[in-house]
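Form 7-S
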Amino acid sequence: MAESTTDDAAPAPAKRRLLPLLIGLAGGLILGGGAFYGVQTGLLLAPADTSPRPSPVATDFAHIPVENITISLAPDSGARFLRFSAQIEVAKDSVAQMERLNPRFLDLINTYLRAVEVADMTEPAAIIRIRAQLLRRLQVLAGDGHVNDLLITEFVLN
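Output:
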């Protein structure tokens, strides 16, 4: 049996062979144009901005002292009381406003420290965690840019 060498299928029209090539070419032009636009306008591959930006944290600051707080602890905790004092670092231009908030600061600190378990206070990293929690709460209470830091000056479990 001899195989026939003639093709039964007719060759595809020239249009069908060029269609994928034209789609690829159009896609390449669109992507190339978008990339050119992005680089020209600085959206892509823009040089780093090295100009100094103003810090959101004030460089001039003052300290507002927090009164000594003494918290009595549960009888079965192993300690009788906690003595706490701190300084709140605030922006210099908002000292008067923050001093008016001092009673709220005291209430916030007192309420938070009463809620913390004594076992959590005796851990080695407890002071760092307590400071971070208190600082975040003070910043929320005071508003943006007023409270910079909380400096714990006394933390005694007795």
